[in-house]
UniProtKB/TrEMBL annotation:
Pfam families referenced in this protein's UniProt entry, alphabetically: TetR_N (PF00440)
Keywords annotated in UniProt: DNA-binding
Native organism taxonomy: Bacteria, Bacillati, Actinomycetota, Actinomycetes, Pseudonocardiales
Species the sequence originates in: Amycolatopsis plumensis
Residue ranges for the DNA-binding region feature of this UniProt entry: 38-57
Domain called HTH tetR-type: residue spans: 15-75
Name this protein carries in UniProt: TetR/AcrR family transcriptional regulator
Length: 199
């Protein structure tokens, strides 16, 4: 492919090149943090020039987006494991909101978009059809009798995922004043979402 550098091991495909740049950015961010990571740092970590990085990403914010998206699968797995402890549809729905509101801002990679002032991109990602499908997959995998809660189809489960994701996004972007404790947030969501999930 005519790549220079790459620490003597050029990628075989464009996708591999992008993945390796994202991995290099992740390493830089983990080591130095967002404020001290530049595009030059990422290029040096990957063993390429800045120009090579620009071939795959227009700028650092685009790399941050890719790093954040790479963290989605791992986050979804942790959320699913957490929610597996809740056996009813209402409990699982309530806890999904509490988990997301409390966990996402501290996520080392997904939270980067909020830290970098990319809240619009973060929002677009959370309320995308792909995100709703992820959410529905998490809910579907839980030990919950969704049919007993009145959710009979995949489309309805996806609709529930959309409502829950829009809800936690609202709490993330527009926190209550004063801030709600976990129990207060739990009680609020349970009061208004719970009745819809009792069949």
């Amino acid at each position: 492919m005519g790549h220079h550098g790459w620490q003597g091991n050029p990628p075989e495909t464009e996708d591999e090149a992008r993945r390796r740049i994202v991995e290099a950015a992740t390493a830089c961010l983990d080591r130095a943090g967002l404020a001290k990571t530049s595009l030059s740092d990422v290029a040096a970590e990957a063993g390429v020039t800045r120009q090579t990085v620009y071939r795959y990403f227009p700028g650092l914010k685009d790399i941050l987006r890719a790093v954040a998206l790479a963290g989605v699968e791992e986050f979804a797995g942790r959320m699913e494991r957490h929610l597996a402890a809740f056996g009813t549809a209402a409990e699982a729905a309530v806890e999904s909101v509490v988990f997301a509101v409390r966990t996402l801002p501290g996520e080392p990679h997904m939270g980067l978009l909020l830290q970098a002032g990319e809240a619009d991109f973060f929002t677009d990602g959370v309320i995308s059809p792909l995100a709703f499908s992820y959410g529905a997959r998490i809910l579907r995998n839980l030990p919950v009798d969704w049919a007993a809660a009145g959710i009979a189809t995949d489309e309805e489960l996806r609709g529930l995922a959309e409502v829950l994701m829009r809800l936690f996004l609202s709490f993330l972007q527009y926190p209550s004043t004063p801030p709600l404790t976990d129990d207060e947030l739990r009680a609020l969501v349970r009061r208004w979402i719970g009745p819809a999930l009792r069949g």
